[in-house]
Amino acid sequence: MSELTKELVELVWGTKSSPGLSDTIFCRWTQELLGIHEQAAVGFLTLMEALRYCKVGSYLKSPKFPIWIVGSETHLTVFFAKDMALVAPEAPSEQARRVFQTYDPEDNGFIPDSLLEDVMKALDLVSDPEYINLMKNKLDPEGLGIILLGPFLQEFFPDQVMYVEGTAVIMGFEDPMLQTDDTPIKRCLQTKWPYIELLWTTDRSPSLN
Fold first, then answer.
1. pLDDT 10s digits, 105-120
2. What is the average per-residue pLDDT within 19-40?
3. Average pLDDT value for residue range 7-31
4. Measuring CA to CA, how many Å separate 207 from each of 12, 56, 161, 183, 187?
5. Reduced to 3 states, what is the DSSP secondary structure of residue 40?
């Protein structure tokens, strides 16, 4: 990283090199961390990250205002917009991605399974030992000793809500001719309507999980 770039970082974001901060610009060719203490007022994006020479943290990618300094190999450009929706508060899945990546500084897309407990604690997820072991087995069914980012986010922070349409038939008595399935969702509903039957529009019944 050039002295000019260091001076720019310290001028705009008021920070100096520090290996222990929660959000950083990580320079692969110098192995240097420029720490950002909190969400920045002005953001930073760089072509160098696309070329995998550095990694810019989310406090800089998601600033308080829609203003970014955009860097190339030789020049700096200011990019700004009027739409504050571009810097909306961090979504839970984005926070989870950011926390996960603090344990994956090389951006490999996975962490050792030994770090799963630390990640879940940092995200205030259930972190009892038995539950951690259960999640390790579910997220790493092949026993490779790693937890991939994608399955982790899908398990705890799914972006999509799936809807399944169905019809409920509530009888006053049990009719063996009308019995459908014996899924957990049906058993749950039967605690309220003992003789309910569910007819789904899909071949696969929806899951409670």
1. 888 899 999 999 999 9
2. 55
3. 51
4. 49, 38, 12, 8, 12
5. coil
Three-state secondary structure of 107-160: CCCEEEHHHHHHHHHHCCCCCCHHHHHHHHHHHCCCCCCEEEHHHHHHHHCCCC
Surface-to-core class of residue 26, CB atoms within 10 Å of its CB (0-12 exposed, 13-18 middle, 19+ buried): buried
| φ/ψ (deg, to 5) at 11 | -75, -50
The residue count of the chain comes to: 209
Strand order from edge to edge, sheet including 23-27:
32-36, 23-27, 54-56
Residue 76's alpha-carbon distances to 46, 94, 191, in angstroms, are 9, 27, 63
CB-side neighbour CA atoms (13 Å) of 106 = 4
